[in-house]
Write a structure and sequence with these properties.
OB fold (Dihydrolipoamide Acetyltransferase, E2P), 2 domains, five-stranded mixed barrel, two-stranded antiparallel sheet, 7% helix
Length: 110
């Protein structure tokens, strides 16, 4: 979805919301996964959330990673503090698109 990447390129996290049924469309697509409407709008979400699960990556640069639930959706991202564990409150501190056109999300303590 082009609009999702456009906002990420500006460092903004927005997801599509269905104007027909109000569903959050995650992962982002051009139509609603529930009612199949194409009437969607890009909306900001509260970026505070909670870590569901965390681990470490040893591939390339060593990173702490977490599955984070924010506003009812789940996102995998980098945890900037190694002391964050499952259940920790976090906030989305940075998002964007890497040089290989992959989205990234970074979380810090809330």
């Amino acid at each position: 979805m082009k609009e999702f990447y456009d906002f990420l390129n500006m460092g903004e996290f927005r997801i599509p919301i269905c104007d027909n049924c109000g569903a959050k469309i995650w992962p982002p697509t051009n139509f609603c996964n529930y009612c199949y409407s194409k009437k969607i709008r890009m909306s900001k979400l509260d970026t505070k959330g909670q870590i569901i699960e965390n681990t470490q990556s040893y591939i390339g640069k060593r990173n702490n990673l977490g599955l984070v639930e924010i506003s009812g959706i789940r996102v995998i991202g980098i945890l900037d503090d190694g002391a964050m564990n499952s259940g920790s409150s976090v906030k989305l501190s940075k998002c964007g698109v890497d040089t290989d056109n992959s989205p990234f999300f970074e979380f810090s303590s809330a």
